[in-house]
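User: Here's a protein and a ligand (flavin-adenine dinucleotide). What would the complex look like?
Assistant: Let me lay out the input and then the predicted complex.
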Amino acid sequence: MPTRTLTPGTDVLDRALVVDPGQRVPGRASGFPLRREGPAKLTGAAKYTDDLVFPGAWFGTTIRSSEARATLRAIELDPDVDWSKVVVATAADIPGENIVSSIKDDQPLLVPIGGEIRHVAEPVALLAAPDRETLRRLRGRIRLVTEPLEPVFDPELSDHVFAEYDVKHGDPSAAFAEADLVLEGEYRVGHQEQLYIENNAMIAVPGEDGGIVIHGSMQCPYYVHNALKRALQLTSVQARVIQEETGGGFGGKEEFPSVLALHASLLALKAKRPVRMIYERHEDIVATTKRHPAVVRHRTGFAKDGTLVAQDIEVVMDGGAYCTLTPVVLSRGVLHAGGPYRCPNVRLRGRATRTNTAPNGAFRGFGAPQTEFAAEMQMNRAAELLGISPAEIRRRNVYVLGDTTPTGQLLRESVAGEEVLELALGASLFERVRERTRREAAQRTGSGTIPTGPLRTGNERRATGIGLALAWHGAGFTGSGEVHLASVASVELAAEGRIRVLTANTEMGQGTKTVFPQMVATELGVPVDWVEYAPQDTAEVLDSGPTVASRTVMVVGKLVILAARRLKETIEGRSNGVPFHEAFRDDAREHGATRIDQKFEPYPGVVFDDATYMGDAYPAYGWAAAVATVEVDLDTCEVQVVDVIAVDDVGKVIHPILCEGQVEGGTLQAVGYATIEEMKLDKGRYLNDRLATYLIPTALDAPHIRSILVEAPYSGSPHGAKGVGELPMDVGAPAVVAAIHDATGVWIHDLPATPEKILAARHGERAPAAVGPGKAA
Amino acid sequence: MPAEPPIDTPKHLFEAYELLASGPTRPIAGGTDVMVAITGELGPIPERMLDLSRIEELRGISLEADGLVLGARTTYTEIRRSALCREHLPALVEAAGTIGAAQIQNRGTLGGNIANASPAGDTLPILLAADARILVGGQRGEREIKALDYFVAYRKTALEPDELILHVRFPLPGGRQLRFRKVGTRRAQAISKVVVALGWQDGPRGWSDVRVALGSVAATPIRAAGTEAVLEGARPTPEVADRAAETLAGELQPIDDVRSTADYRRAVSARVLHRLLRDAGGW
Ligand SMILES: Cc1cc2nc3c(=O)[nH]c(=O)nc-3n(C[C@H](O)[C@H](O)[C@H](O)COP(=O)(O)OP(=O)(O)OC[C@H]3O[C@@H](n4cnc5c(N)ncnc54)[C@H](O)[C@@H]3O)c2cc1C
């Protein structure tokens, strides 16, 4: 356990427990275990899906549409090819329903003849061959006969609505009438690619019982399991899903793996042998889900002193061609759209529609980074117009204990907005640096050397800017999501005396395999090495829900801790009080295996009404602040993010090194989102569809990141944890864009804030087309 | 993996010439362009390949009477570490340091950059600004091509299919100045949005032999003749810099593509030139 230090100083700070990074020693530091799968990954011994050998396995590939929208008339196989040596599968081969099971049943595994192709690179047929060379040769010999239909690319012009929300609180129109400042703003964000290191990969092995065993890269084995049962008409036993070592997910392996597992299975059933489907990067980028593009419009009323009096916010998200998880992404986006601010009069409207691009889906932050970017932009612009500091306007409005959110949720506990704000301001010397950057900006203007024309340079080459952002992030699933999931996790004392944790929650680099045994070992009072983590195999573990929504430590961690406690009680009860660590081996010999299954129970007092959209949207919230410092090249408008102070309240730090890793990774992903990650489109086709064109920050582009972890525990969890993975993703982009403004004087409303947009804004030129919805280049 | 093409690995130039003359074969030096191109995904897989990695005649950096000579197989790392390059061609050293990142610099070669002839090839504007000469050879003999004559059209060069690039000669007239600036999307592994190289000779009557060369703003690396004319015989004063920048913006016809926009490329080419002139003028 970390020794926790209170940061001395103000009252505000005394409420938060700040984990002092100085306490950490690399490696096995004061009780924090090393990553379980770390050594195998470092030495190259770890086996990812593509490393697995299945004798006799064939290779599978997907035949995809080249049009954004069309009717599929026929699939023609070149008559000059001997097709008996390979296997071709189409929708006609699907034994069950032609549906990728998700929220709505709108997505087919394969477009059927007569069906509608709804996006470029949509799967239409599958091909398997004994070797890759044959596959490569024959894939071009399958021709799709189609009739084009008119595609829709602008989500605001689409008449097919996936989801809509409307939240009202107070009386916004009356409040706007009385506001001293009414500020409007329109913000756009584009697609973002998860870009996990390991591409999507699945191997399907047909079983004797007519079933299928899936080995693959995924976040949610039971999502895949459900999808298999449904489309292939398999029983729970016939469908078996095993997660293999997974090289990153970020949400990109939440729902998409079901598609690939189904494809591999169809081919494997038809070929009667294992089939490998391993995407290459290009295919992974063109065919799999991305972060939802969005347009967010704000109308905000402020009193002179910066107090928020009214918010009217409209969120439009581009769902892409199929629904996938869009309704829940939109829901989180809308619920976070006001930002972490108290406002008595609020209207939040959200709409997500269908367009003819590949379906968008889960990505770290799940809708919140899009809308919180807009909220923070609005706050920073308002501060500028009102002549108060970005810090001060937040101090006046940030939620405190006892405030009520737009859904009527009373914030009863674990509210740390002020703490994270003050810590970020203090650690970055925000006001002092800002005074300097503003002085420098004034000098640049006053000296007369500021370039007078767009083709001239000024005296100064570079400008420094500093920017602030604040965010909240609802912990766990939205609304009644966790109740519907009804997760179960287990801790077992096996007959041989082994202690095992059994959950369906996956390791994808974030540390599940390390922290669950750590938590159980702490409860049982045994060394962490004595606790095993059972494989994520649906034949072995129950459904503890998906590994998403930063819920693993908070929600499943609670189940694991409670199960461990019950196991300890049971064993110590049987041993007449001999402590667990001394008693468990004898107990196992005497009584055989003891397994405790712990079911999710609703958090006490947390009530949400799906129908009215009112109530406790989340059991608790995590709070984050970031201060970014940038340097902008005044000649080229290239932006270098030099430094980010990231302060994150995660409720309880279970493993400081892993927790900090999440903050650093999330911050860097947000820096990429803010500055360079861009997906341009041409008629529904991604133009940045390779690593040569979809660029993310390299090590040289990474800022110096200082993470400060804060603990404002949540009483609904035995450990107090609220989750960390997504939190840093919400604040990075608005902090960077605010810093760019501080350096250059221009506001960039559309992400990414590229040099092209900054230069155009600085010199009043035509801004390049935004990549967001409706502005496809 | 698709079937690998057969690979010949000659030790001497004359053997390589024979192989080139006897049928289509694809030279491979560092492989950093070729390996990306031959996976079968982006185009046909070559029938044969010609591995240049054993031909010592293509290596080496030497100072000769008529300039600095770099073998085609010189890698970016070698350029960066070469005392001769640092002394005589610091702009090339600077350019080499912007290419890819360490791994690419260890393998990628100057000859490969020139043969590949991407409009975004980072060393190519330097070749143009330095009036470099490219020595090529084959069974039919050897010849020198001026950098200016080398880039014919989009990825089309004056190199014949049966020829190899042997080395590049950079003349080093006394007092010759060269400057380089690359603008890319990120700080490593970035294909250029704009590359600018500026060369000149300072004299009592102002600048002479001015070269303004650019990459990523046209189908090939180009020289901006109108801008060169503005600077020829002039000095880098604020007025001259303004006029040169405006002329450059006027004569460039870049395009919008996946990496950048025409507007940005035009404006930034001009601004970078303006900055280089400002630095040269010391104002
Ligand atoms: C990740 C990555 C980053 C990159 N970054 C940059 C960058 O920042 N800037 C940049 O300019 N380039 C960049 N490149 C492209 C590439 O590295 C350079 O063009 C490099 O100089 C190519 O040299 P090479 O020896 O690897 O060429 P090869 O790949 O071996 O060959 C390239 C071409 O030249 C031909 N060829 C090679 N040598 C000869 C010769 N002596 N005679 C005749 N033909 C020959 C080959 O047949 C082939 O067509 C990058 C490439 C990668 C993969």
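Summary: The pocket of flavin-adenine dinucleotide is lined by residues B 26-34, 36, 52, 58, 72, 99-100, 104, 107-109, 111-113, 115-116, 121-122, 164-165, 189 (CB under 6 Å).
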